[in-house]
Every structure is written in structure tokens, then in C-alpha cells.
Specification:
Elements (H helix, E strand, L loop, with lengths): L5 E2 L8 E2 L32 H11 L12 E10 L10 H4 L4 E10 L14 E9 L2 E8 L12 H8 L15 H9 L4 H7 L14 E2 L4 E4 L5 E10 L8 H10 L3 H11 L5 E9 L1 H6 L19 E10 L4 H6 L12 E3 L3 H18 L46 H5 L31 H8 L3 H16 L4 H14 L1 H11 L9 H10 L5 H4 L24 E5 L6 H13 L3 E6 L4 E3 L5 E3 L2 E2 L10 E4 L3 H8 L2 H12 L3 E5 L4 H5 L11 E4 L2 H12 L4 H7 L3
Parallel strand pairs: 13-14, 13-18, 14-17, 18-19, 19-20
Antiparallel strand pairs: 1-2, 3-4, 3-11, 4-5, 5-6, 7-9, 8-9, 8-12, 9-10, 10-11, 15-16
Helix pairs in contact: 3-4, 4-14, 5-12, 13-15, 14-15, 18-22
Keywords: Heme, Hydrogen peroxide, Iron, Metal-binding, Oxidoreductase, Peroxidase
Pfam families: Catalase, Catalase-rel, Catalase_C
GO molecular function, one term: metal ion binding
Length: 707
């Protein structure tokens, strides 16, 4: 009887049939894929072994150049659902048609590190969306931070060279904490605002599912009446914006460098589809003129207190890629992929990106036909006269390969636009002026928004920025670079500069260094920054807390540590409530297998104290039971679980009446803490859930100086 058994691999890919014959790329069946063709069993391999040559040839060329920036990423498929159409602003179908649903592919990434680096580096995160609209591809290629380091794309190669590992030794990987980055930043004051965001908790998100997205650059919308508007794109996560602390990020990098990738993958596999609200910040020409900064300057943010964000739809990710390379690695984004109703502004950073991204695809994917790869192919039919080129996949069947032509029923131009169809139109705008290599003076204020951002943070937000600057500049070995950057901080905020300077053992400079002013003066005819700085403004929307969601623990992960003699009834109560709330409770013990409760019943262990660390969880539950807790108190790894959870400001539940683990850990040093909950009744479990929903007890860090 024919063997018809199928096998499913661990990743859930399509079944591999055991009765299917192995073939070459040309379809030739292969009898032996374990031995090369040789002259005798111990003789030399033969050059005529075309099967071996094909296999090794393909293997040798499996890799393509990684992205220069945003090399490490993760992606997913999904859908954008329009809830509140805006035809009055844009004629783009996916923004103006009631009930429109648009397929998307989203890629998240870090910026600085290589493909093999950690997910938890202190870094900007890419947030790029490919909308497969009925009118063509629209790529929104953004970040999780609304501003950027530089104003003009001509400085981008220098920025990347500076922040990447240093040339001499390729060190450090995926880190800005080194000489060349801070040397560049100290000489380019326009980076000040973005560096403040980079030193904040925004740069170490809890997950991709819990971070904002921004288009960064200013775009334009065009409606059917020919009216144009400036627009900024925003994405707000349904789960709220949450971050980890720096000590935790470093430890996660060691325990699970794929932490964000795995989090996204597992959430989608479990049906916990990540969602974001897509919003637009729309400005008329009159509103744009009323602002005291230039919206074409990518180092500036428009606080939503000034121009409200209108949320118009929901982005949901609901399907993982079938193949990482074919989809996530080969996806090609480009700000120049537009649809009718959306256009560019004159933002000089965006203008430079229009050249760079297209050039990058040719370098990485090896052909101008990269748009024919399935992940990059538009869903609507394409009609044009692009022909030939390496790796062409489409096979044109018409005989007219030029425009205009009259054969075969006419060309697309005659059959579309002439019959009333609507094509892409640029926003009509006058452009005049003499050629010049200078910045507009409206780009000259580099410090007002940096100061506003810092002063808009909560007490813990400011502390984390102070700690981040102290760490990063502490890694700089050139003292003149440290001192020069302290000069920038002294303009942004004197108190911040004083705190960081004290930790570095340096005096606080009076202001910008001569080298910094000289560099800025090469860019501006009259460098106006210090004359224009405006202090005293604060905007709550610039803080993480403004965007937090404290009402749910959905998709959160809680570690339940126990060993023999634990309280099974208490554990079951906790398990039931955590499951009801849409969170996960993992049972962790000192060994795998079945662990015996005080009642003699058993539970199966999910992970051990060695294989899963405290930093990989959002909260900790020490299961009740005197015998269990006394044994845990003697296990160093269990004590470390508690100490790390405490240090990282997480909610901690202590079951039962035992005091053994408390006395063995740093819990004994904390006198009063609302996020440390003793579990005695069902009501205490509810309190614990509320504390998890608060994400972190930042007051613990402020009060106890644990970090």
C-alpha cells in the first residue's frame, strides 16, 4: 500500500509528503542526496556531478546583502480597515471609500544593528507599512519616533557611518554608546531633539505591539477638487505604549535576543492580533504658517495639543509570514511608492529618501524587477512598457512595447485616462529661487523642542533620560567629546546637564563649544539657534505615560515559580483569573516534569528557572505553600527571579503565609510597595491583576534607588 503519511514541521509550515520524490531545481528526480559522485568509493569527486554543483551553487548564493540600516526586522501580514473616510482631504481610495479594507504587510526593525544583533538594543525602531491598495502600492516608511536626527538627506551617510560600529574594530554592535556617534552628535546640534527621544524609554519598547508609529516626514494630501493639505501620519497601539528599563533590556538581550520577534510571532499565532489606530494630523496652509517652527524640518514634531490627530481606521496584523526570507527579508519599501491623493512635501530629508530607497533595492535585490517578487507585487493589474532586465518574471504578451501606440486595441494611456480614468497627479505648487546650498533659517532652532520634550516627561521619564545619557557618554573614551556634548545639554536643560556632568566628573560648560558653533555656521548663513530657543513649554502627549493603557493585562506574561509542596488551590485560582483576563501564566520550577503539590496532586512544568528568566516576564507570582517557598529560598536562581522583578519595578505576588523567600531576597529591604501583593484571598488576586495592568511601579525605583 502506498505510504501517504504527511509530516508537519515545528514551525507550522505546509506538510512535507514522504512519498514525494526529491528533485533538482530543473525537476530531475534525485536518487541519492547524501553522496557526491566519485571515482571509486574512496576516490576524488567528479566535476560532472551536476546535482552537487547545483546544490552547492544555490547554497553559496542564498544570502543577499543585508540592509545598511534596519537590517534586523520582523514582519507580518494584516489589514487596514477605514472607519472614518476623509474624502474632503484625499481622493486616495483606501482613505476615502466607506468600509474600505486594504491588505498590508508591516515590517518592524531596529536601525543600527546587523541582522544577527539583539532586538533590545537602545535604538530607533522602524515601522514600515506596505498598503496593497486598489490603486497601487502605498508605502508608509516610518519609525516609532516622530522626528529624525538630521534635516537634510546629504548628512545621512555621515550619521550612519558615525553610529555604526567603529571602522577599526567593528565594535560596538547595535549601540550608539561609543566615540564616533557622540562626536558626530556633539558637532551637529540639529540632532539634539532626536537624541533626547533616543535616550528616553521610547528607544527600549516592551514589544513591537506596544509602540507608536510615525510617518516622520511631512506629506501632502490632494482631494478630488484639487485642494491640498499637509499631513503627518500616526499609529497608536491598542495595548498602549510601554517600555522596559535599561538594565532589563541588557539582560533580555542575553537571555533571548529574539524577544521582540518571538513576541510578535506568538501573539499572532495565538490569535492575539496586534492592532493600531491610524491617525492623520492635517494642516491647511494657514495653520502651517501659524506654527513657530517649520513642518518641513524632520527634527520637529507637531504636538497633538496644537494640531489634533484624527484617527480614521484600524491596522491589524493577523497572519505570520510563510517564509521569512521570501517575505520579511525581500520586502522592498520606498517612500516614492504613492497612490493618487497622496504626494510629497518639500522636506529635504524626504526628498533625499526618494533617491536612496530605490537605489537600495537594486543593490539588495539585484534587479529593477524587484517589484515582481510576490511580497512586493501590487494587487491591482499593472500596465506599462517596462521590459526585460534581470530575473524578469512577468511575460508580456502584447506587441506594443512603446508609448503611444495604436496596435492591439491601443495603449493604457488611451484606454484609461482618455476614457475618464483618474491617474496620479502631483500637488501643483510653484517653485522658484536661485540654486543654493544653505538651510532655511526656519530650520535653525535646534533646542526648543529638545527642551520641551525633556520637560514634558514625568519624574521617572526624566530619571531614565539622565541615566541613559550617563551610560552612553560614560562609554565615550574621548573626554573632549563628552565635554562638547555637555555643552549641548546645557542649552537644552541646565539641570540635566548638571546631573550628567557630575556623574562624568566634568564641569558644566557655559554653552555650545566653538567647534559646534563653527559646524552649524557652515550650514546656516546666520546661525540663529540660541537666539530663538523657547523654554517653558510642556506637552503631555510627548510622554510615554500619556499613551499608556492601564486597563488591561491582555497578552501579558506572568511567571509562577514553585516547587514541591506548593498550594494547588491557590495556583488554580490565579490561573483561572489570569486566563480570563487574556494573559498567560507559565509554571516555572527548578526542574522539568510533574511537580507534586502539598495535596499530593501534580502540575506539569512549562519552563525551568534556568531556561526562562525573570526579565522575560511582565510580572512574578511566587506560589503559596510553606515547603515550596522555603525550598525556593535556598535556590539562588529563584532568589534572582524575585530580585530582578523587584529591580525592574514589576508587580510581584507572594502566596501563602511563608516569609522565607521574602527574607532571602531584596524584598526584605522594601517597606511599602503597592505592587507587592500578599495573596490571601480572591480579592488579593484582583489587586495583583490591577498592579500588572499598571505596567510598572515607577515609584519603587524613585523611592528605593534600586537601579
Amino acid at each position: 500500500m502506498k505510504n501517504d503519511i504527511t509530516k508537519q514541521n515545528d514551525e507550522g509550515a505546509a506538510p512535507v509528503r514522504r512519498d514525494q520524490g526529491l528533485t533538482s531545481n530543473q525537476g530531475t528526480t534525485i536518487a541519492d542526496d547524501f553522496n557526491t559522485l566519485k571515482s571509486g568509493v574512496r576516490g576524488p569527486s567528479l566535476l560532472e556531478d551536476f546535482l552537487f554543483r547545483e546544490k552547492i551553487f544555490h547554497f553559496d548564493h542564498e544570502r543577499i546583502p543585508e540592509r545598511v540600516v534596519h537590517a534586523r526586522g520582523a514582519g507580518a501580514h494584516g489589514v487596514f480597515r477605514l472607519m472614518d473616510p476623509i474624502p474632503q482631504f484625499s481622493k486616495a481610495g483606501f482613505l476615502s471609500q466607506v468600509g474600505a479594507e486594504t491588505e498590508v504587510f508591516v515590517r518592524f526593525s531596529t536601525v543600527v544593528g546587523s541582522r544577527g544583533s539583539t532586538d533590545l538594543a537602545r535604538d530607533v525602531r522602524g515601522f514600515a507599512i506596505k498598503f496593497y491598495t486598489s490603486e497601487g502600492i502605498f508605502d508608509l516608511v516610518g519609525n516609532n519616533i516622530p522626528v529624525f536626527f538630521i534635516q537634510d538627506a546629504i548628512n545621512f551617510p555621515d550619521l550612519v557611518h558615525a553610529v555604526k560600529p567603529e571602522e577599526r574594530n567593528e565594535i560596538p554592535q547595535a549601540a550608539s554608546a561609543h566615540n564616533t556617534f557622540w562626536d558626530f552628535a556633539s558637532l551637529m546640534p540639529e540632532t539634539a531633539h532626536m537624541v533626547m527621544w533616543l535616550m528616553s524609554d521610547r528607544a527600549i519598547p516592551r514589544s513591537y505591539r506596544m509602540m507608536q508609529g510615525f510617518g516622520v516626514n511631512t506629506y501632502k494630501l490632494l482631494n478630488a477638487q484639487g485642494e491640498s493639505f499637509f499631513v503627518k501620519f500616526h499609529l497608536k497601539p491598542k495595548l498602549g505604549v510601554h517600555s522596559v528599563v535599561w538594565d532589563e533590556a541588557q539582560k533580555i538581550s542575553g537571555r533571548n535576543p529574539d524577544f521582540h520577534r518571538q513576541d510578535l510571532w506568538e501573539a499572532i499565532e495565538n490569535g492575539d492580533y496586534p492592532e493600531w489606530d491610524l491617525g492623520v494630523q492635517i494642516l491647511t496652509n494657514e495653520q502651517e504658517q501659524s506654527l513657530d517652527f517649520d513642518i518641513l524640518d524632520a527634527t520637529k514634531v507637531i504636538p497633538e495639543e496644537l494640531i489634533p490627530i484624527q484617527y480614521i481606521g484600524t491596522l491589524q496584523l493577523n497572519r505570520n509570514p510563510d517564509n521569512f526570507f521570501a517575505e520579511t527579508e525581500q520586502v522592498a519599501f520606498h517612500p516614492g511608492h504613492l497612490v493618487p491623493g497622496i504626494d510629497f512635501s518639500d522636506d529635504p530629508l524626504l526628498q533625499g529618501r526618494l533617491f536612496s530607497y530605490l537605489d537600495t533595492q537594486l543593490s539588495r535585490l539585484g534587479s529593477p524587477n524587484f517589484h515582481e517578487l510576490p511580497i512586493n507585487k501590487p494587487k491591482n493589474p499593472t500596465h506599462n512598457f517596462r521590459r526585460d532586465g534581470a530575473m524578469r518574471q512577468d511575460i508580456p504578451k502584447d506587441t506594443g512595447n512603446y508609448n503611444p501606440h495604436s496596435i492591439a486595441g491601443g495603449c493604457p494611456y488611451l484606454s484609461n485616462v482618455m476614457s475618464g480614468g483618474s491617474g496620479f497627479e502631483s500637488v501643483p505648487a510653484a517653485a522658484e529661487g536661485r540654486k543654493i546650498r544653505k538651510r532655511s533659517e526656519t530650520f535653525g532652532d535646534h533646542f526648543s523642542q529638545a527642551s520641551t520634550f525633556y520637560n514634558s516627561q514625568s519624574e521617572i521619564g526624566k530619571k531614565h533620560i539622565q541615566d541613559a545619557f550617563s551610560f552612553e557618554l560614560g562609554k565615550v573614551t574621548r573626554e573632549e567629546v563628552r565635554f562638547r556634548y555637555l555643552g549641548i545639554l546645557s542649552v537644552v536643560d541646565k539641570e540635566l546637564a548638571t546631573i550628567v556632568a557630575d556623574r562624568l566628573g566634568l564641569p558644566v560648560p557655559d554653552g555650545l563649544s566653538e567647534e559646534t558653533i563653527q559646524t552649524a555656521s557652515q550650514i546656516f548663513e546666520n546661525y540663529p539657534a540660541l537666539d530663538k530657543i523657547k523654554l517653558g513649554f510642556t506637552y503631555p502627549s510627548l510622554s510615554v505615560e500619556y499613551h499608556c493603557d492601564f486597563d488591561t493585562i491582555k497578552t501579558r506574561k506572568i511567571a509562577a515559580i514553585l516547587t514541591e509542596g506548593f498550594d494547588l488551590q491557590e495556583l488554580k485560582q490565579m490561573q483561572a483569573r489570569i486566563k480570563e483576563e487574556g494573559a498567560t501564566l507559565d509554571i516555572i520550577a527548578d526542574k522539568y516534569g510533574d511537580i507534586i503539590a502539598a495535596t499530593g496532586e501534580t502540575v506539569k512544568v512549562d519552563y525551568t528557572l534556568v531556561t526562562m528568566d525573570s526579565v522575560l516576564y511582565d510580572a512574578l507570582y511566587v506560589v503559596g505553600g510553606n515547603a515550596s517557598q522555603e525550598k525556593l529560598a535556598s535556590i539562588k536562581k529563584a532568589v534572582c527571579y524575585v530580585d530582578d522583578a523587584l529591580k525592574h519595578n514589576k508587580a510581584i505576588a507572594i502566596g501563602g503565609n511563608s516569609n522565607a523567600l521574602v527574607q532571602a531576597s531584596d524584598l526584605r529591604l522594601v517597606e511599602s510597595d503597592k505592587a507587592i501583593v500578599s495573596i490571601r484571598t480572591a480579592d488579593d488576586i484582583e489587586v495583583f491583576i490591577q498592579r500588572i495592568a499598571q505596567h510598572r511601579n515607577w515609584q519603587r525605583e524613585l523611592a528605593n534607588n534600586l537601579l
